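Q: My labmate handed me this sequence with no annotations at all. I'd like to see what the chain might look like in three dimensions before we decide whether it's worth expressing. Could you predict it?
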Amino acid sequence: MTHVQHRSTLAEVTFSFWIMKICATTLGETAGDLFSMTLDFGYAISSLLLLGFFLVSLIIQLKSKKYDPIKYWAVILATSTAGTTISDFMDRTLELGYAKGSLLLIGLLLLTLAIWYYKEKSLSVTTITNLNSELFYWTAILFSNTLGTAFGDYLADNSGLGFSGGAIFIGILLLLISLAYYFTKISRIFLFWIAFILTRPFGATFGDLLTKSNLKGGFNLGTIGSSLVLFFILFILILISKNKMAKNIVSK
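A: Here is what I predict for the chain of 252 residues:
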């Protein structure tokens, strides 16, 4: 594959990036459940439909000449939503279970990162300016968001932590990673990918916390109500991001 140089079309990793990432992955959890369970499409059909959405949004993103928040976060949302139904298909329809499903997805993610590093000599997301690296980037994100669903469900259902306990546990891990970023010399690339992976199960457990009934320890908003609330929040954050970009262009 040849290297086609272009300007970075990916989001800058800032504090707002992580807020939007958690919001998008939580929305992916509730929206995925909306397709597969509430609308009763099933895990297989939902996965095919959402993978189609992922491919369309990815093609649009790859054709971009500059960073566009709507296009970028549409792909993130697509990977998260598809990842939810794919994980549930593996765990429940194929009956792999959460633990085996998580281990399989960890293997696929590590393989993707290994090939990416072998081909590009870097896993940094701040220096992605060619098509090859961006394709590896989105492949890794799809696997990490699918993994996050399986791992989040494992924490909520099999570990005994429950939805709120799982969210708190991963929240603590994310806090520790943040402290390591500011107070240690641990590789920033390593910390980014660990944080990126963990924000998905955080979204998965938080999404379950929003949708499940009070008897199951949730807030009983349902998949439709939770999805609408999260979509509104993400939409507002994207508008703020676009407005900030417009102001930066004017100021220059």
